[in-house]
Amino acid sequence: STRRLHRLLSDILDLSKVEAGKLTINHDSFDIRKSLRAVITFFTAAAEQKGILLGVVIDPEIPGTVIGDDYRFQQIVSNLVDNALKFTSEGSITLEAQLLASGDEQNCRILFSVADTGIGISSEAQGRLFHAFVQEQSSNIAHSLGGTGLGLVISRRLTELMGGSMSLDSETGQGAVFYFTLPFRIADSTGVEEGSMQKSFSLEGIRILLAEDDDISRTVAVQLLQRTGCRVTAVADGAKAVAALKKDFFDLVVLDVQMPILDGPGAANAIRNGQAGEEKKDIPIIALTACAMSGDRKRFLDSGMNGYVEKPVEVESLIREVHRVLEEKR
C-alpha cells in the first residue's frame, strides 16, 4: 500500500541518518498514554479486518508527562505493531507498558512490549533479525505478507540512540514478544499520583463476574482484571451471567454489550428486575463496548448499568471505572 511504501522510504532515510550519525533525538514533553493510544487507534481497522484482537495494557504508575522524542517513540511502537500484524493471522496482539523500579524521582525507565500469536521466529533467524533487510522466511509466508524487516532494524537503532535496548522472545509457531526499554525524564507527577490514588483503594479479593462471548476478548479481560488482584468468574453470555449471579456472590458485574442469547443491556435489565435475586438487584454493573457513540451511554444507563469501558480494553480505564462504581456503591 501507499502507506507502507511511505514508511519503508522513511525508514531507509532514517537508517542512513543513524548510520551517518546525523539523526537528532528531540527532548520535548509528551503523554505516553496518548501516544500508545494513538498507535492502537491507527492500527485498529487493520486488526479488525483480519479478525485480530488489538489490546493495550498501561501501568497506572507510569508518569503522566515525560520528556523525550514522541515522534521516534511512536515510530518504534508502530513498526513493532505493524510487524506483528503482518505475521499474525488469528488471535491477538497486545501492547504493554510497565514502569520499572527507579530510585530517582526525576527520571524513570519504562518497559514496553508487543506480543502476538503469530507464526513466531526460529532461534536461527533471531540471531540475524535486526540486521538490515533480513526477514524470516517460512514457506514463503514472509514474501506473501510483504515487508523487508527494515522496520525492526530502525526500531532497534532508534531505541539504542534514545538510551534504551530491545530484545525478542519467540519460538517457531508460538508467536513473538518484542521488548524494549527507554529512559525518560519525568515532566510532572500526574501519572504517579493517579497510581498512588488507585493503590489506596485495592481491588485485592474483589469478586467480579465477567460475561464476554468472544474467547480471546474474554481471556484478555480476565488477565487484565486478575493482575489487579481480582477474583474473576467468566461466562460466555448474558443468560449465564444472570444464572451465575443467582448462584454465587459477586461485588461487581462486567457485561459485554453484544452477546448471543442475552446481550449486556438485556442481562443488566434482568438483574435489576430481580431475576438473579432480590438482594442482588443493586449490584454495580459495567458495560464493555466497541461502540460508544453519544446515544450509547444513555442506552447503557437506561438498562441499569452504572458505567462502561470502551474496547480495546485498557487496564487503566477498566481499573478507573471499577474504582468509580464501587466507590459510588459504598
Automatic annotation (TrEMBL):
Histidine kinase domain mapped to chain residues: 1-186
Classification via InterPro entries: CheY-like_superfamily, HATPase_C_sf, HATPase_dom, His_kinase_dom, Sig_transdc_His_kin-like_C, Sig_transdc_resp-reg_receiver
Response regulatory domain residues: 207-326
Gene Ontology molecular function, alphabetical: protein histidine kinase activity
EC number in record: 2.7.13.3
Gene Ontology BP terms: phosphorelay signal transduction system
CDD domains: HATPase_EvgS-ArcB-TorS-like, REC_hyHK_CKI1_RcsC-like
Domain of life: Bacteria
Assigned keywords, A-Z: Phosphoprotein, Two-component regulatory system
Catalytic activity: ATP + protein L-histidine = ADP + protein N-phospho-L-histidine
A Pfam family recorded for this sequence: Response_reg
In-chain residues carrying the UniProt-annotated modification 4-aspartylphosphate: 256
Protein name as annotated: histidine kinase
